[in-house]
TrEMBL record:
<dbReference type="Pfam" id="PF05652">
    <property type="entry name" value="DcpS"/>
</dbReference>
<dbReference type="GO" id="GO:0000932">
    <property type="term" value="C:P-body"/>
</dbReference>
<feature type="active site" description="Nucleophile">
    <location>
        <position position="255"/>
    </location>
</feature>
<protein>
    <submittedName>
        <fullName>Uncharacterized protein</fullName>
    </submittedName>
</protein>
<dbReference type="GO" id="GO:0000290">
    <property type="term" value="P:deadenylation-dependent decapping of nuclear-transcribed mRNA"/>
</dbReference>
<comment type="similarity">
    <text>Belongs to the HIT family.</text>
</comment>
<dbReference type="GO" id="GO:0005634">
    <property type="term" value="C:nucleus"/>
</dbReference>
<dbReference type="InterPro" id="IPR036265">
    <property type="entry name" value="HIT-like_sf"/>
</dbReference>
<dbReference type="InterPro" id="IPR011145">
    <property type="entry name" value="Scavenger_mRNA_decap_enz_N"/>
</dbReference>
<dbReference type="GO" id="GO:0140932">
    <property type="term" value="F:5'-(N(7)-methyl 5'-triphosphoguanosine)-[mRNA] diphosphatase activity"/>
</dbReference>
<dbReference type="Pfam" id="PF11969">
    <property type="entry name" value="DcpS_C"/>
</dbReference>
<dbReference type="InterPro" id="IPR008594">
    <property type="entry name" value="DcpS/DCS2"/>
</dbReference>
<dbReference type="GO" id="GO:0000340">
    <property type="term" value="F:RNA 7-methylguanosine cap binding"/>
</dbReference>
Length: 326
C-alpha cells in the first residue's frame, strides 16, 4: 500500500471518532443495528452501527466467548426451559449493561438438538388424508411423551404466574386463556415485543382442530389479546400488533403469538410456518359444511427441516413411494 493510501485510510478512520451524536433515528428489532443522526465538522451525517456476528466456527471460539459471560440475571424458568440476560464485559456490578439474551434448555431431548441444528428445508403439502392417517397419530404420540408439562405448569398456576399479563375466563370453561411474555423476548424492547397466549382447553392441539363452531371463540380471543396487550403496553396501538399461530407448531397445545409488526420477520414468521389468526378465521368462515367442518378438511403447505421426524418418517417415504414409518 502506498503512503498516500495509508494517509487516506487514516483520515477515513478518524471520521468515526469525530462524529457528533445527534439523535437516534432507528433501532432494529433485535437491537443489533442502530442508525444515528449527527454531524462531522458541521455537516450532517448518518452513522449506522451494527454488532458483528458471533465468531464461533470452532469449539475453542465458543468456549472463549462463554468465559466472557458475566452478570447473569435469571428472567424465569419452567420445567427444562430457562432464560437470562447477561453481559460480555465487566461494567458496573450493581447495574450491568446486559448485551446478551440467553436461553437454556436442560436436560434437552434429541428433538431439541434437531430443531436447533442447521438443516436443509423442504416444502410439503399435508392433505386431509395425510393429516388423518399419519400426522394426527404423530401428534398424539408426542403429547403422551409429557412434552407439555411446562405448558400445564403455567396453566395450572405452578410456575411463571408473576409473568402473566392477562388471564381471561371468557364466557365459559372452554374459553379461558392467559398471556405472558415469550421466552425469546428481552421484555424491554418494544419493537421486538413478543407475547404468547396459551388456551386452557386441551381439545385443540393445533390449528387443524379449529372448526367453524370455534369462530366466535377465536374472534373473542383475538380481541381480548389485542386489548390486553395495549393495556399492558400503552405505547402500542392495536394495529401495531400481529397475531399468528405456527404450523407445524413446536408443541401440540394451541397457542397464539402476539408480536409487534415492526419485529423483523425471521424464519418463525415466514410463509410456510406462520398462519395469521385473522386469515384462519376468514378461512373458517368460507369453508363449506356444517359447524363441525374446519381446518382438518383442507390441505396445508409448510416447510420442514430434513432432520424433523415428520420429514424422515412420513414425507420422505411418501415422496419415494414408500410407506411412512409408524
Amino acid at each position: 500500500m502506498r503512503a498516500g493510501d495509508n494517509e487516506q485510510k487514516a483520515l477515513t478512520e478518524e471520521l468515526v471518532g469525530r462524529f457528533e451524536v445527534g439523535q437516534l433515528l432507528s433501532q432494529d428489532q433485535n437491537g443489533r443495528r442502530i442508525a444515528v443522526h449527527g454531524k462531522i465538522d458541521g455537516e450532517q451525517g448518518v452513522l449506522i452501527l451494527e454488532r458483528t456476528a458471533f465468531v464461533a466456527e470452532t469449539r475453542e471460539q465458543i468456549e472463549a466467548f462463554q468465559t466472557r459471560i458475566m452478570h447473569v440475571q435469571n428472567l424465569g424458568d419452567n420445567d427444562i426451559y430457562r432464560w437470562y440476560l447477561a453481559s460480555t464485559h465487566p461494567g458496573d456490578e450493581k447495574s450491568p449493561a446486559h448485551d446478551v439474551k440467553i436461553n437454556l434448555i436442560w436436560p434437552c431431548t434429541e428433538q431439541h438438538i434437531k430443531k436447533y441444528s442447521s438443516q436443509i428445508l423442504r416444502m410439503v403439502t399435508e392433505t386431509p388424508e395425510i393429516y388423518r392417517d399419519h400426522i394426527r397419530p404423530y401428534m398424539n404420540a408426542k403429547r403422551e411423551e409429557g412434552r407439555l408439562n411446562w405448558v400445564f405448569n403455567i396453566l395450572e398456576g405452578r410456575t411463571e404466574q408473576e409473568d402473566v399479563i392477562l388471564r381471561d375466563k371468557g364466557h365459559g370453561p372452554a374459553d379461558g386463556f392467559l398471556m405472558l411474555p415469550d421466552l425469546n423476548w428481552d421484555r424491554k424492547t418494544m419493537n421486538s415485543l413478543h407475547l404468547l397466549a396459551l388456551v386452557e382447553r386441551r381439545d385443540i392441539w393445533s390449528l387443524r382442530d379449529l372448526k367453524k363452531k370455534h369462530i366466535p371463540w377465536l374472534k373473542y380471543l383475538r380481541q381480548r389479546l389485542l386489548e390486553g396487550t395495549v393495556k399492558m403496553y400503552p405505547d402500542l396501538e392495536q394495529d401495531q400488533l400481529k397475531l399468528y399461530v405456527h404450523y407445524q407448531p413446536t408443541y401440540y397445545h394451541f397457542h397464539v403469538h402476539i408480536v409487534n409488526v415492526m419485529l423483523e420477520a425471521g424464519s418463525t414468521q415466514a410463509t410456510g410456518k406462520a398462519f395469521g389468526l385473522e386469515n384462519i378465521i376468514s378461512q373458517l368462515e368460507t369453508i363449506e359444511g356444517d359447524e363441525e367442518s374446519g381446518m382438518a378438511d383442507v390441505s396445508l403447505t409448510y416447510y420442514l427441516g430434513e432432520a424433523n421426524e415428520l420429514w424422515t418418517n412420513i414425507y420422505a417415504p411418501l415422496k419415494q413411494g414408500n410407506k411412512p414409518v409408524a
